[in-house]
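Exam revision sheet. Question 4 asks you to relate a sequence to its structure. Input first:
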Amino acid sequence: MKIKRSAYILTAAILLSSMTGCSKTENVLNSEVDPLAFNAAPESVTFDWQEAYESKLKEFKKSDRYSADSRFDLMDITDDNIPELIISPSAESSERCDIYFSFGSSIDLLTSCGAYGEFDFIPSILFIGFQYDGDGFTIGEYQKYSEGFYNKEISYYTNVGSASAGAAIRYEINNESVTLAQYNSTVSAYQNEQSIKLGRKYTFGDECIDYAIHCSESWSKVLTGDQKQKYRESLSEYVSSSYPNAAFEIVDLDMNGLPEVVLSTGLPGEQATKIYYLDTEGVKNIKTDNDSDGCIRFDIKQNVFYSGVEKFKCWTLADADLNRFKPSDSIMTCGRKYELSKKNLEFAFS
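Answer key, structure tokens:
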């Protein structure tokens, strides 16, 4: 299947407020493009888990636990090449995520984990965990995946934040008192591992659910071998000690079936994100800003990606009208799905 874009236009603008739209639009790229053919439309790629996960999301959306602050995520945290479904009811401090796994066309609860509606996933050792900082105390836990289950490996607690109030300071690992040195050694062993924050990637808008279920995990089947190789080569230059916190994600930022790649360099400051896209001359890229988490936001309904909360800076690859842009109910956070490494590049573009 071949799609032609008569004009591939990137526009960038600053949105002064969510109510007034973009004050001005700058055309920063305007070139004739003959995009490369791709293997299949993403919606035509099917997996056993899709129907069950979609039903669970729609069921949750109708439940009393759902609110406008609810989010969900998809990520393989069991290393079986099948994503788990993660539902985050809210971002409240005590909120844990419910994590579901698929077996055939059915699903079941794998575990619950997190605080503030999210948790950390350590891919290298298959651990998940969280830390909650309360009023004068800190608690946390890590769960280990083994033989089909996630089970608690360690929990930790300290009230060191109450020192100024004269409290007797305690350090605990698995409810047993330990020294400060033992506490730091145990906790840092997990916190020093490279981790990914999970739980709050997608809102529950209809377009988000549809994209997550029917497109987000399909790109290895959609892209041709040549296209995958071009993307791998373009991102390989960032696999170095100069970019230890770089990450990437494959995302269709104009919803035409041929995905782009969002690279989050992990560096502070403006233009810390690059958007790579394919055309007849190979791979090109555009620099954009990102938010404090190193990600950008993509409005799937309106084909606009942006950074900022009340003051937006926004872009489009689909010639969308930025002057009237206001975020819809179908927003995804993107740019840091995979740590940037040779292994992950080979996996994502396999």
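Marking note for examiners. The mean pLDDT is 89.
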